[in-house]
Amino acid sequence: MESLIDAQETVLREALAGIVARRQEALARFYDATVSRVYGLALRVTARSDAAEEVTADVYMQVWNQAARFDQGRGSVLAWLLTICRSRAIDCLRRADEAESWAEPPEVAGSAADDPQDLLIAVERGRALSSALEGLTALQRQLVSLAFFRGLTHEEIADHARLPLGTVKTHIRKALACLRENLAPGMDERALRR
Prior knowledge:
By secondary structure, this protein is mainly alpha-helical. Helix 1 crosses helix 2 (24-46) and helix 7 crosses helix 8. The longest helix is centred in the N-terminal third of the chain and has 23 residues, at 24-46. The protein contains 8 helices and no strands. Helices cover 69% and strands 0% of the residues. The chain is elongated and about 80 Å long.
């Protein structure tokens, strides 16, 4: 009697043969039989449902385009499919912008100013700083925010961002140089500490 695993392998190979013949119903059968495993693996690797959905779609697009490349001498259809999934999920993580991994820091509320002139100066500085920060890359902006708005040390930022310490220092140094060039005269990085 054929085991359940052998029966599943037979069904998947038949569906794969249909995909090679460009039959959409074969892809639909293949998808229905395997999507829970593919999505589950993608979710485990990426840890984000939106990324897992994107990876899952990429996997089945690759299956549709490359089904003829499956070599049954090298393993089962499911192993081949999950290898594709793992590879696409890792690619997705590599493509991700480092700054997307962390939430933006909360807005820093200014102290209540008694003098309207002080309030106007604070608003103008805030606008200038905002504009200058927009000129940075997303990663630079995130690292500067962690350093100045949250008060983290370079070592704490490196741990939080899972980046090498030297990389963190280089990005912050370049960001500060860019801010110095773009800020209004008389305003420097001390304004970030307010």
